[in-house]
From TrEMBL:
Metabolic or biological pathway: Pyrimidine metabolism; UMP biosynthesis via de novo pathway; UMP from orotate: step 2/2
Keyword annotations of the record: Decarboxylase, Lyase, Pyrimidine biosynthesis
EC identifiers of the protein: 4.1.1.23
UniProt keyword annotation of Transmembrane present: no
Entry-linked CDD domains: OMP_decarboxylase_like (cd04725)
EC class: lyase
Native species: Dioszegia hungarica
Catalytic activity: orotidine 5'-phosphate + H(+) = UMP + CO2
UniProt-listed InterPro entries: Aldolase_TIM, OMPdecase, OMPdecase_AS, OMPdeCOase_dom, RibuloseP-bd_barrel
Transmembrane segments: none
Record flagged with keyword Lyase: yes
Protein name, UniProt field: Orotidine 5'-phosphate decarboxylase
Entry annotation: catalytic residues: 91 (for ompdecase activity), 93 (for ompdecase activity), 96 (for ompdecase activity)
PANTHER family documented for this protein: OROTATE PHOSPHORIBOSYLTRANSFERASE, URIDINE 5'-MONOPHOSPHATE SYNTHASE
């Protein structure tokens, strides 16, 4: 199973260029940390990214919350991703029919496919959502995650729905769909020889059990060691820490170390 293999060795199992690059970065930077930068101006996003960039394998955005999103912002975050060696993940959560998501991915004011290496989609509309997004993303070397589970309290992505999400990913093949947003190792049941999925997990925090709107937190060790997930996604726990710029940087390092230690423990090192 994927949980007993190193990130480096798993890079070989992927044909998708974004998945390969991500696993390479994880090994190089000893980081399975993704910081979710949910702040609302371009300059604030870039400030957080400059601060945490060295500690992360990936930066997650919500481009539709940035009030002054622009081509200049895209150019700068792209430059930082090259310089500081991280993947850009736009957490768009596409959820419409194939034709519409194709337009939403390639066009509009955000042209997500032009700059985001990785994005995600709800499996709710059925496999057409994958073929639509793939028609835009594959020629650009992009990758997709399916939301098989969510972190929020009483969400509906459970049981049969989760299993169908995994089945849909297997049917689509590894060219574009490289993994899941999930809280656990959802790909364990019915795993095929030679397959490898990346499981990325939000709802990670060391200081709080949740928020007032249903978010639920677990520690990096619970996520990576106990549940066997691959990437920890941390938002407010890092960018929201009080105490100024240095503190954000320190906190990112702290999560990176905890996430990496849990991964090494999982490998039995
Ligand atoms: F798919 C999901 C999910 O199930 N839970 C999430 O929290 C995505 N997220 C995102 O991760 C959410 O939209 C935020 O951007 C981020 C978590 O932020 P937090 O500040 O660490 O709670």
């Amino acid at each position: 199973p994927s949980t007993t293999k190193t990130y480096a060795s798993r890079a070989e199992l992927h044909s998708n260029p974004t998945a390969k690059r991500l696993l390479g970065i994880m090994e190089r930077k000893q980081s399975n940390l993704c910081v979710s930068v949910d702040v609302t101006t371009a300059e604030e996003v870039l400030e957080v990214v400059r601060r945490v960039g060295k500690s992360v394998c990936m930066v997650k955005t919500h481009c539709d919350i940035i009030s002054d999103f622009s081509k200049a912002f895209v150019d700068e975050i792209t430059r930082l991703s090259d310089e500081m060696d991280f993947i850009i993940f736009e957490d768009r959560k596409f959820a419409d029919i194939g034709n519409t998501v194709t337009l939403q991915y390639a066009s509009g004011s955000h042209t997500i496919a032009s700059w985001s290496h990785l994005t995600n989609a709800h499996p709710l509309p059925g496999p057409g959502i994958i073929s639509g997004l793939a028609s835009v993303g594959v020629p650009l070397g992009r990758a997709l995650l399916l939301l098989a589970e969510m972190s929020s309290k009483d969400n509906l992505a459970t049981g049969h729905y989760t299993r169908e999400a995994v089945r849909m990913a297997r049917e689509a093949g590894p060219e574009f769909v490289v993994g899941f947003i999930a809280m656990s190792r959802v790909d364990q049941e019915g795993a095929k020889e030679g397959e490898d999925f990346l499981v990325m997990t939000p709802g990670v925090g060391l200081h709080s059990a949740g928020d007032k709107m249903g978010q639920q937190y677990r520690t990096p060790r619970e996520v990576v060691y106990d549940s066997g997930c691959d990437v920890i996604i941390v938002g407010r726990g890092i960018y929201g820490i009080k105490g100024g710029e240095e503190k954000v940087k320190e906190e990112a390092e702290r999560y990176r170390k905890e996430g990496w230690a849990a991964y090494e423990e999982r490998l039995g090192r």
